[in-house]
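Recall the central idea of this unit: under ordinary conditions, the amino acid sequence of a chain determines the structure it adopts. In this exercise we apply that idea directly, starting from the sequence alone.
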Amino acid sequence: MGGAELVFQTSWRVIEPLRVAVLDQRFLMRLAPYPEIAGELIGRAVDRARHVLVHMAIAHHPRVDARLLHLLWQLADRWGRVTPHGVSLPLRLTHELLADLVAAQRPSVTLSLQQLERQGQITREGGRLLLIGEARVRSGGHRPPPSPASSNTRLLKRLTPQRGG
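Accordingly, the structure predicted from this sequence is:
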């Protein structure tokens, strides 16, 4: 680009306290003596790109209930906590936020969550969502189908070259 500066705007909706760092040109100059840090940052950018690809695939599914279930398993793969009853999501997930994440209207998300709950795929426990499925394997029940997020992750690993290999 011959030194031209790429300028763009973005926005975030913060739902938990966080700290943000600006990784600008000045930061890059100070980073130069530490290539291992640059490598780690690039690796994280690649991981983020993979998450975006999965999210795009989820958003294009025609059924809202399927989009929600795929999204919830993706979040569970990243932040879930395994319990004896399933995988708990320790996140504040409002119906409005879920609607934004799956490209749907809030009322459709509410109805789809109720449907998933009636089907026994999710439940609420202590104000948190609990995904049912993986825990049944450990408790001796029949093997549930693999989580959608795990399937997406395996597919992306097959399709994308691995770092350091």
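Confidence is low (pLDDT under 50) at residues 134-147.
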